[in-house]
Structure formats: structure tokens, C-alpha cells
Specification:
By secondary structure, the protein is an all-alpha fold. It has helices spanning 14-19, 22-31, 36-50. The model has no long low-confidence stretch (mean pLDDT 79).
């Protein structure tokens, strides 16, 4: 899966979050310049899904 941050909608769809693997995260962190953004996007997704 290709992870992509869309700052216009900073919440991943529920299905996409459940399909993220550790290799997806490794690939993202190897390619992405600003790696902290993924953490905050996952955090905002968590808050949206918990509501």
C-alpha cells in the first residue's frame, strides 16, 4: 500500500488504517522527508475513529 498524506483531509479512511503494515511504515519513513507528519495524521485518524 502506498501511504500518502493529504493535508486537505488529514484523516485516513478506516479501511486504509486497518490495512497498514509495518513494511508500509518503513517504506513511508524511508521516502518521506517530514516523517513526523505521518504520526500526527495517524493520531488525528485515531481521534476521528474513536468518536
Amino acid at each position: 500500500m502506498l501511504l500518502h498524506i493529504d493535508f486537505n483531509n488529514p484523516v485516513f479512511p478506516r479501511e486504509q488504517v486497518l490495512d497498514i503494515t509495518t513494511m508500509d511504515l518503513v517504506d513511508f519513513y524511508m521516502a518521506e522527508a517530514d516523517q513526523a507528519n505521518l504520526f500526527f495524521m495517524l493520531l488525528s485518524t485515531l481521534y476521528a475513529l474513536v468518536r
